[in-house]
Amino acid sequence: MRPFLFLGTRAEDEAADSEYAAILRCTGLAETDVRRVRLEREALGPVVLDDWSGILLGGGPFNVSDPAEEKSAVQRRAEAELARLAEQVVDADFPFLGACYGIGVLGGIRGGLVDRTHGEPIGCVEVTLSDEGRADPLLVDLPERFDVFLGHKEAVRRLPEGAVLLASSTTCPVQAFRLGEHVYATQFHPELDVEGLVLRIDTYREYGYFPPAQAQAFIDMARRSVVTEPPRMLATFVERYARP
């Protein structure tokens, strides 16, 4: 099998390693089946799509809607690399699934708009599949409504031209969309379980996602939540796109 490419942007080692471990767990891939690139540490370089079965992009504290003067050199470099990759995968209609930051990377191309209008605090939210989402091969085995873990400052306000809306919530109109037949982005985190979310609450308590003094309340919320369906998207992505 050709390997999958996993791209991360988290500078915090424990959170970054937890995210990567969750990707392996949810996809069923071995480390030998994945090449991991931490974009906050190293440049991506040219991507030859034919070398890969597909590409997965994780989340992180970068936001494309951050004020330009507040973006570090690392963030600007990662954004530029991912913007080029986004155009490349959309042009080729190449298998790609970006979680959370994937919305920022894909949502602003081809006339789309990503801004702070529909941000959501860290939490457990019910999403609803659209008619197109219920028929989509990546989502067809999921129920029409299911709970997800999320937490984001920015979201899609206007979909890119030609994008297909797959899922929404009452507080965020775009929870998942597709470009072409094989390029996907989700606002929620399909890899997250309770312990992973608790770790992120603790790691990012000073990053503006919630008042730091309320961290324990968010952890208690996470521990009361039951989220079971989203990881199936990752397993289906690998089953659908793994190539010899």
From TrEMBL:
Q: Which GO terms describe its molecular function?
A: transferase activity
A GO cellular component annotation here is: cytosol
* Signal sequence residues: none
List, for all copies, the residue spans of the domain called Glutamine amidotransferase.
Answer: 22-192
InterPro entries, per database record: ChyE-like, Class_I_gatase-like, GATASE
Keywords, A to Z, come to: Glutamine amidotransferase, Transferase
The highest taxon in the source lineage is Bacteria
Write down what this protein is called.
Glutamine amidotransferase
Q: Name one Pfam family in it.
A: GATase
